[in-house]
Please model this.
Amino acid sequence: MPPALRTRRLLLTPYTPDDEDGFVALFQDTRVSRWMGDGPASEAETRALFGRVFSKVYARGLFVVWAVRRGGLLVGHAEIKRTDQVDGHEIVYALSPEAWGGGLGTELAEALVAYGFETLGLAEVHATVDARNEASLRLLGRLGFAHVRDIEEDDGGLTRVLTVCRTPRPATSSPT
Model:
């Protein structure tokens, strides 16, 4: 199970079975799901995905997945996982529309990048974003992500690959 992470306003915790309806509501909201994976899925597919978080992801320790909470309420979803699409680790995040516009997305993405660098020891962290998702592209740009390349999808859509590199720590000299 992933460790809990706390930001100034958010708490990232492993999902519990009680989160199923909130997870389904988040991923069934087309304002959110249009930017996730292959886009909107049926409610049955979303419930099956939630089940796989427990039966595969957590059970096998495949990658880190969190429920994102604010004030005790489920307001989002977050992941950091290895993917061949970018030949490295990518962050995935989603917030309910009610949580948009107040800087929570930036706070969440910063926490995921920090986890990648500090806990996983990564040299770089990636994100893949639909080229039409201007809000996420701006957010990631503010965090130092740079556009690396584009992936043309089977449906003709364009996915941007963005990367941020760990800033090397300055060498400290010891007194001699």
In short: The first strand starts at residue 5 and ends at 6. The mean pLDDT is 92. Residues 132 and 158 are 8 Å apart (CA to CA).
